[in-house]
Amino acid sequence: MSDSLARHDDYDGPPFDESLIDRDPFVQLRRWLGDAEAAGLPDANAMVLGTVDPDGAPSSRTVLLKGLAGPDGPALEFVTNSESRKGIALASEQRVTLLFPWYALRRQVIVDGVAHPAPAALSDEYWATRPRGSQIGGWASRQSRPAADRAELERAVAAAEARFADVDAVPRPPHWGAWLVEPRSVEFWQGRPSRLHDRLVLERVPAAGRPAVDAAWRLLRRQP
Fold it and tell me: pTM, whole model, 2 decimals?
């Protein structure tokens, strides 16, 4: 194994223990997300979304966190084409995982949760913030479908541009929208020397007779 691929005992991150984690996972996630942004990590809001296809095959890809506030309480928001591979997977199995891989900070966050389609108003709100070119791309791309070559995609883009040439506000495609992930557990992983990493997990404990958004969170430590 080359030296560049070898594992080194260089996890010298700051201490992270039960006295330092906020018992609200969204508060703690915002804190660590802010640290990643302050450190200048590219695409600090990038997260790996893991899903299960209708045939049981797992798949993963990177999406961007678009927000942490849903209409009914805190949730992790991302957007996708419902006709894409992940969109089809989400329609079949809404249990998902999300992973924030902040390698440079020797940190990662793993979310296990359930994904739900966001209300149309929330999807419309985010769609309106996208650059026009991205909106055109949302109409042109048949996401995850095979393409003969790059020219096929470019022809579809040209057709979409012509379709909306006289339209000031490009409408949101019916197949495009936001999803909200409601966490069941959130693990905050901090690298430490000798691979004795800190793994602190906040698990949702629903309050009896109350909505899930009012749930309490139970803290536990997992061995590295």
Answer: 0.87
What's the N-to-C CA distance of the chain in angstroms?
24
- Mean pLDDT score across all residues of the chain: 90
Task: Quote the pLDDT of residue 19.
Answer: 93
Superfamily of 25-128+174-222 according to CATH:
Electron Transport, Fmn-binding Protein; Chain A (2.30.110.10)
Let me know if 195 is a catalytic residue.
yes
Catalytic residue selected from 132, 195, 221, 222: 195
The whole-angstrom separation of Cα 29 and Cα 27 is 5
Map out the domains of the chain as residue ranges: 25-128+174-222, 133-168
CA distances from 166 to 25, 124, 163 (A): 46, 20, 8
Summarised one tens digit per residue, pLDDT across range 102-134 is 999 999 999 999 999 999 999 999 899 999 999
